[in-house]
TrEMBL record:
Region of interest (Disordered), residue spans: 491-528
Domain AMP-dependent synthetase/ligase, residue spans: 18-370
Group of enzyme by EC: ligase
UniProt-recorded name of the protein: Long-chain acyl-CoA synthetase
EC number, UniProt record: 6.2.1.3
Length: 528
C-alpha cells in the first residue's frame, strides 16, 4: 500500500487527480465570475485539504457546510475526499433550532458558513449549540480574516497523499425525519463513484456535459447529477438558489445542456421566457415552451423516459425506468450493481404482485446513519438495507413503489414528515393534540394541513400556530391550513386514525398514490 492505496482501488480524490492530468484544461466549475479548470480546481482542492488537515479534519472526521449552492462546496467535497473525511451539506432553509441540532449532531472539526440571507439564523443556531465552540468556523462569503479564501490560502498546494479507504464515508446527507429529528446518511467513495456512473449512463453524461446546479446541493435530487458530472469530467455550473430569471440567463450564457428543474420552476421559466428573451435551446432544443419537460437525474434523453425509485440512503436511484427496455413500472428495474427484494415482516420474500418492504444491497447503499447505532441495527439486517418503503414486483421483474411505511407529505421536491410538524405544534401550550396531513395540490403535489385539538381554555388561532411553526421549523414545513376539532379519531390501539383524518379533512396524494395522474417525478416519485 502506497500513499494512494493499492492499484485495484480508486477514490473520489483519485478521480480529481486523473482529471487534472487528462482534462486539466477543461472547465470543472462555473459560479458567476469564478471559472476553474480541472487543473485549477484540483490545485485549490489540495490547498484546502492541507488547511483542513491542519485543523484536525483528517480520516473519519467531518466538515459541515451551512450555506447555499456554491463551487466551494464542491471544493470541500474534493478536499475531504483526499483526506478520508466527509463533508455534510445542510438544508439552509431550516430554523435556528433545527440547525443547532445538526451542528451538535455532526460535531464537525470545521464549519463553513454563509452570512448572506441566512446569517442571522446561522448565528442564532451557533449560540444555541452546545458543541459549536469546539469547531473552527469559516465564513465562505467574506474576505479577509476568518474567510474561506484566507483559510484556503493557508494550505500548501502539495497533494496531501493520504491513503483513503474507498469504502469510507465522503458525503453525508440529512434525511428521514421520521422520528421527529433527521438522520445523516453517510455515503462512501464507492457509492458516489458507482452512482455517478449509473446516473451518467441514464442521463447520457460526458466531459461535454454542462450541468446547472439549480436545485439545492444538500439534496441528492441535485447532487446525483453533480457527482455524475464530476465523475465524467463535465462542467458543474452553480447558482446559489432557485431563481428562474437568473437560471435562464445562466443557461443561455453557459449553454447548459443538463439541469435540475422541478415542475413549479419550469412553469416560472415558461412564463419568464414567453417572449423568447433567452436562448434556452442548449437545454430544450425545441423553442416551443409547451414541449419543455422537467430536468431530473432519472431523465434519459435517448429514450425519452424518466422515473426510478431511490432515497438518500442508497445515494439516489437504485432502480431506473430510463435504462434498457420499457417495463411494467415507471420505477423500472434495479440499476447495475444493485439488488432489490420485496419482503414481509419476517424478512421472507413475498410473491410477485404482493406488497412488502423494499430492501436492497450493493455499493450504493450508505455505510450507515451518523451516530445512530440502534437505528442502523434496525435498518441493516442480514446483509440488507431495509428502506422503510413499501413496494411490489411486477411479473416482468420491475419494481413498483407503493408508499412509505411511515406516511410522508411531498411538497414539490421537499419531503415533510408529519411527526416533525406535529412535534412542533404540540410544543405550543395552546395545543393538546395535532394530526398533520397532506392535501392534494395541483402546483406542489401536496400542501400541509394541521388538524388541531386546542388545550383546555386555549383560544390559540390558526395564524398563531402557523407563525409558531414558521419560527421553529423550516418555513416550507409549516401548515398552509389549520382546522380545529374537538378530538381526533382513534384506532383500537389508541393511536390516531390517520386514514379517518384524511377522509374527513381532504387528505391524500401521498407518494405512491395516484392523485393527479403525474408520472414525471424521479425518485419514489421524488427523492427524499
Amino acid at each position: 500500500m502506497g500513499p494512494f492505496g493499492d492499484a485495484s482501488t480508486i477514490t473520489l480524490g483519485d478521480v480529481l487527480r486523473e482529471h487534472r492530468r487528462s482534462r486539466g484544461g477543461l472547465t470543472a466549475t462555473v459560479d458567476h465570475a469564478v471559472r476553474l479548470s480541472y487543473a485549477e480546481f484540483d490545485h485549490r482542492v489540495n490547498k484546502l485539504a492541507n488547511a483542513l488537515a491542519a485543523h484536525g479534519a483528517g480520516p473519519g472526521e467531518r466538515v459541515l457546510w451551512l450555506g447555499q449552492n456554491s463551487f466551494r462546496l464542491l471544493e470541500l467535497l474534493g478536499a475531504c475526499a483526499k483526506l478520508g473525511a466527509a463533508v455534510i451539506p445542510v438544508n439552509w432553509r431550516q430554523s435556528a433550532d433545527e440547525l443547532a441540532f445538526v451542528i451538535d449532531d455532526v460535531a464537525a472539526r470545521v464549519v463553513v458558513w454563509q452570512d448572506a440571507e441566512i446569517g442571522v439564523t446561522v448565528q442564532a443556531a451557533r449560540e444555541q449549540s452546545a458543541s459549536a465552540a469546539g469547531s473552527l468556523w469559516v465564513r465562505h462569503d467574506a474576505t479577509g480574516p476568518g474567510s474561506y479564501e484566507e483559510f484556503l490560502e493557508s494550505g500548501d498546494a502539495t497533494d496531501p497523499g493520504v491513503d483513503v479507504d474507498p469504502a469510507s464515508p465522503v458525503l453525508g446527507i440529512y434525511t428521514a425525519a421520521f422520528e421527529g429529528r433527521p438522520h445523516a446518511a453517510m455515503l462512501s467513495h464507492w457509492s458516489a463513484l458507482i452512482e455517478g456512473l449509473v446516473v451518467g449512463r441514464i442521463a447520457e453524461l460526458s466531459d461535454a456535459t454542462v450541468f446547472l446546479n439549480s436545485g439545492p446541493m444538500f439534496h441528492l435530487g441535485t447532487l446525483m447529477t453533480t457527482l455524475a458530472t464530476l465523475v465524467h469530467g463535465g462542467t458543474n455550473v452553480v447558482v446559489a438558489r432557485v431563481d428562474p430569471e437568473e437560471m435562464c440567463a445562466v443557461i443561455e450564457a453557459e449553454r447548459c445542456n443538463r439541469a435540475f428543474i422541478m415542475a413549479p420552476t419550469l412553469e416560472a421559466i415558461r412564463e419568464i421566457n414567453a417572449g423568447g428573451r433567452f436562448d434556452l435551446t442548449s437545454l430544450w432544443p425545441d423553442p416551443d415552451p409547451a414541449t419543455w419537460t422537467m430536468c431530473t437525474p432519472s431523465a434519459n434523453p435517448a429514450t425519452g423516459r424518466a422515473g426510478g425509485y431511490g432515497q438518500s440512503e442508497v445515494s439516489g436511484l437504485i432502480t431506473s425506468y430510463g435504462l434498457g427496455r420499457k417495463t411494467d413500472s415507471i420505477y423500472g428495474r434495479p440499476a447495475p450493481l444493485s439488488q432489490v427484494r420485496i419482503v414481509d415482516d419476517t424478512g421472507a420474500d413475498v410473491p410477485d404482485g404482493e406488497t412488502g418492504e423494499i430492501i436492497c444491497r450493493g455499493p450504493v447503499v450508505m455505510t450507515g446513519y451518523l451516530h445512530r447505532d440502534e437505528l442502523n441495527a434496525q435498518r441493516r439486517r442480514g446483509g440488507w438495507h431495509y428502506t422503510g418503503d413499501l413496494g411490489k414486483r411486477a411479473p416482468d421483474g420491475s419494481i413498483h413503489f407503493v408508499g412509505p411505511k411511515l406516511r410522508m407529505i411531498k411538497s414539490a421536491s421537499e419531503n415533510i414528515y408529519p411527526f416533525e410538524v406535529e412535534r412542533c405544534l404540540t410544543a405550543h401550550p395552546g395545543v393538546a393534540a395535532a394530526c398533520v396531513i397532506g392535501v392534494p395540490d395541483e402546483r406542489w403535489t401536496q400542501s400541509v394541513k394541521a388538524v388541531v385539538v386546542r388545550a383546555e381554555g386555549s383560544t390559540v388561532t390558526a395564524e398563531e400556530l402557523v407563525e409558531h411553526c414558521r419560527s421553529s421549523i423550516a418555513s416550507y414545513k409549516k401548515p398552509r391550513e389549520v382546522v380545529f376539532v374537538g378530538s381526533l379519531p382513534k384506532q383500537a390501539n389508541g393511536q390516531v386514525d390517520r386514514d379517518r383524518v384524511d377522509a374527513e379533512h381532504g387528505g391524500g396524494g401521498y407518494p405512491g398514490q395516484v392523485s393527479s395522474g403525474r408520472r414525471d417525478v424521479p425518485l419514489r416519485a421524488g427523492a427524499r
